[in-house]
Every structure is written in structure tokens, then in C-alpha cells.
Amino acid sequence: MSRALNAFIVACLTFIVYIVFTGSVSIYDLMTGFIVAVVTGVLFSNIALSNALKVIDPRRWYILVRYAIRYFIIDETLAHVDVIKRILHPRVPVNPAIVKVPYYAETDYAKTCIACSITNTPGTVVVEIDENERVFYIHWIDAKTLEPEKAREFISKVFEEYSKKIFD
User: Fold this and answer.
1) Are residues 106 and 124 located together in one domain of the fold?
2) Domain span including residue 49
3) CB 43 within 8 A of CB 3
4) Distances in Å between the alpha carbon of 79 and those of 7, 23, 41, 71, 165?
5) pLDDT for 43-54, tens place per residue?
6) Total domain count for the chain?
7) Which of 167, 58, 72, 56 is CA-nearest to residue 120?
8) Are residues 65 and 9 in the same domain?
9) Does residue 3 have a pLDDT over 90?
10) What average pLDDT does range 61-84 have in this prediction?
11) Confidence label for 129 from pLDDT (cuts 50, 70 and 90)
């Protein structure tokens, strides 16, 4: 039953993503999306999911929507404005450094979400994830501190809080 539920959930998510990215609900796209979703669900159900019930938990979806709104409207905007100010400033005030930032997330999905959120935000790029030490190495355009926990406060704490609620 678990494999069948996993396959169904993966197929549903694949179908939704397929339709959203094709931007079409023609018969051809619906049929193609259905076939791709079923094949993907069957082939990747045990790889993509370990607990299908997490995926259908409405609280996690609510947190995901809140995070997406916050990330794309607030975090991205503030980071873009900061980088634009640096570019337009006559002396280009930067203090670049690669900082070591600890993380406390458990699942690969949560770690990936945090790393992508950091990298997609202008001014920071995850250059390596050390799973043994449980740290990200991040290139930061304006390093305010080199102390790992303080850097976490500046860079990834909010991303991690949301990611853990969604994926862990």
C-alpha cells in the first residue's frame, strides 16, 4: 500500500508540475502529462518519497505558501536592492568572504531548499555542503561576521526554519 500511495503522490505532483510548466491544458498536453506522471510515479516513488503522508499534510502546504510569498516578495527584494546599491555606489562597498554556516535540518529536501534559497538570493552562493560537519560554505558578498552561528543568523536562519517545518 505504501508504494502505491507513494507512486500516486509522485504521479500527481509530476502531473501538476507538467501542466504548470507547459502552460497548456490541451488534450495532447493532458494525455502526455498523464503518461509522463504515471511512468514517473511508478519508477521514482520509492526514491522521491519516504513518507507520502507528509506531502498531503495541509499544514505543510500552508507553510510552503507562506514561505514562497515571504521569500519572493521580501527576502529576494531586499537582497536585490542591497546588491543594486552596492553596484551603483561610487566605491562599490563589498567585503567578500567564504563563511562556514551550520545547519540543523535533517532531510535532503530541507537541506536542498535551504541551499537553493541562499544561492538564489543575490549576494550569497552556497559553494559546498559538508554533511559530515553539517555546514554550508557560503560565498557572501558583504561578510558581516566570520563566526559561524552569527553568519547563520544573517544568512540562513529564516530559510532553515521554514524548510524544517515543510520537509523535516
Assistant:
1) yes
2) 2-55
3) no
4) 38, 29, 37, 10, 23
5) 998 888 777 778
6) 2
7) 72
8) no
9) no
10) 94
11) very high
